[in-house]
Amino acid sequence: MSDSLSSHRHEDGGAFCVAALYHFARFPRFESFRDELDAVARDNGVKGTLLLAAEGINGTIAGTDAGIENVLAFLRAQPEFAGLVHKESRASKMPFIRMKVRLKKEIVTMGVEGIDPNRIVGTYVEPKDWNALISDPETIVIDTRNDYETAIGIFKNAVDPNTKTFREFPDWVKNNTGLHNKPKIAMYCTGGIRCEKATAFMKEQGFDEVYHLKGGILKYLEDVPEEESLWEGACFVFDERVSVTHGLAEGEHTLCHACRYPLTAKDVTSEKFEEGVSCPHCHDGRTEEDRNRYRERQKQIALARKRGERHIGG
């Protein structure tokens, strides 16, 4: 993938460029770097979330083409991030409310000490070669994402661990001895970062042939023609687009602002759906007190819209 934003333009995809990025590197100065990065992003009108930790950087940002290019150039000017690559897509409207640069213990939280993708990691598989690998009967395909993500899309015949958070993944692996029944393990996630740690963990657990999709689902959907694709459904993304499909076109899902679960058109017609208050996935688990609180928040959001403003909780 080219580092130049101009190489993958989606001319009819929307006015805003969305850049998903991560890079593992030894980065002990991450705390002092925070304010400088935040200032560069804001000066360029860029919004989104970037996570900084001693192990590197991770996040998604959006803005004008020039703004995104300037922020990426600034990051690649840092010795630790000279090799940083990104995946880009388009959005018809700004998909983030504000810019956040956060300091973290890990840039993707697995919660297992000593897992270092700079030291050991699985074998990268290019999107063009992914279909052959996951169609091999000697391969077990594992989706490393969480249940609300897999609910709207997954690769054909993939194993879904049904995890609520990535922290549950190591225990799921340890409790599934059947994973040793086939020689090859193929893993994938949204943009590739979770698989960096997941494949490193699998190697540490004694699995030999461990592979992961380079660039994740996003790169696969961008590169592989829909007629050849083994992807079924849409891919959840962590911004206001909610999902993307083949060619990285914006999907049709919306988000329940009570539980953050992606909703289909059918979900929205359910009697358990109330905008900003509940949906079929969370209605029965909420009290009436909860719903009244959400209704008040939704009322404030509606009033802000009438004023032509954007409510911070919307």
Keywords:
314 residues, alpha/beta, 5-stranded mixed sheet, 4-stranded parallel sheet, 9 helices, 28% helix, disordered N terminus
Question: Strands across the major sheet, in which order?
Answer: 4-1-3-2-5
Any idea what the radius of gyration is? 20 Å
Average pLDDT metric: 92
Principal-axis shape equals globular
Sequence stretches where pLDDT stays below 50 over 5 or more residues: 1-11
EC number: 1.14.-.-
Protein name: tRNA uridine(34) hydroxylase
Pfam families: Rhodanese (PF00581), UPF0176_N (PF17773)
InterPro entries: Rhodanese-like_dom, Rhodanese-like_dom_sf, TrhO, TRHO_N
Break the fold down into its secondary structure elements and pairings.
Elements: E1 16-24, H1 30-43, E2 47-53, E3 56-63, H2 65-76, E4 85-91, E5 99-103, E6 123-125, H3 127-135, E7 139-143, H4 147-150, E8 153-155, H5 169-175, E9 184-188, H6 193-204, E10 209-213, H7 216-223, E11 231-233, E12 235-236, E13 243-244, E14 254-255, E15 262-263, H8 265-268, H9 288-306
Parallel strand pairs: 2-5, 6-10, 7-9, 9-10
Antiparallel strand pairs: 1-3, 1-4, 2-3, 8-11, 12-13, 14-15
Describe this structure in words.
The chain is α/β, with parallel strands linked by helices and about 325 residues long. The protein has helices at about 30-45, 65-75, 125-135, 145-150, 170-175, 195-205, 215-225, 265-270, 290-305; strands at about 15-25, 45-55, 55-65, 85-90, 100-105, 125, 140-145, 155, 185-190, 210-215, 230-235, 235, 245, 255, 260-265. Strands 4-1-3-2-5 form a five-stranded mixed β-sheet. A hairpin with a 6-residue loop joins strand 14 and strand 15. The protein is globular and about 60 Å long. The protein has nine helices and 15 strands.
